[in-house]
Amino acid sequence: MLKPYEIKLATVKEEVKQIGFSVIEALEICLKALNDRKIEDLSNVEISEKKTLHKSNEIDNIIVGTMALYAPEAKDLRRLVSFLKITNELARTAANTKDFAKMFKKSYSSDLDTNVILEYAIPLLKSALLSLQTATSIIDEKDEKHIEEKYHRVIVEESKTDDLYLMIEKNILKLISKKLDLSKEYFDILSSLRRLEKIADRAVSIARLLQFAQVGGDIEQS
C-alpha cells in the first residue's frame, strides 16, 4: 500500500506531465504551421499563460502541503523539491510558446524574405520542441543511465538552438541593412525566435532538476 506522501507525489508527477504535454502540443501546432507555410494557423495555439500559471500554483500548494504534513523519505523529498522548481520552468515555457506564436504571426508577411526566415526558424523550432519532449520524458524514467543520456540529449538540442539563433540573427541583420523600412518587422521576428531559444534553455533546467530528483547531487543554478 502506498504511503500518503507517495500518493501525493504520484499526483504531482501526473499534473506536471499534463502541463508539459500541453506545451509540447502547442509547439507541435507551431511547427506544423511553419512547415505547411500556413502561418495563420499559429492562431490555433490555445495554450493559456494564465491557466498554466494557475495550475502550477495548484501543484505547488500540493507539494508544500505534502512536505508540511508528512515526512517524505530523502529521495521523495528530493523529487518534491525538484517538481516545485519545475512547475515554474514550465510556466515560463508556456508563456514563451504563446509569445512566439502571437509575435511571429503578427510580424510575418510576404514583404519579408520568408525563405531565409523559415530556413532557420523551422529547425530552431524543431530543436526547441525536441529538447522539451526529451526533458519531460525523464519524469517517468528510472534507469540512471537513460536519465543521463536524455539529459545530455537535451543539452545538445539546446546548443543547436543557440547556434541556429545566432545564424538567423546574422542573416536578419543583413536583410535589415538592405531594407531599413522593414527593420521593425524583422526585429519582431527575431524577438519571437528568441522565445524558442528560451524554451530550450528552460528544457535544460527541467532535465537538470529531474536528474537531481532521480540521481541526487546538487541543483545547479540555471
UniProtKB/TrEMBL annotation:
Top-level lineage group: Bacteria
A Pfam family the protein falls into: PhoU
Domain PhoU, residue spans: 17-102, 128-209
GO terms, biological process: intracellular phosphate ion homeostasis; negative regulation of phosphate metabolic process
Family the entry assigns: Belongs to the PhoU family.
Protein name: PhoU family transcriptional regulator
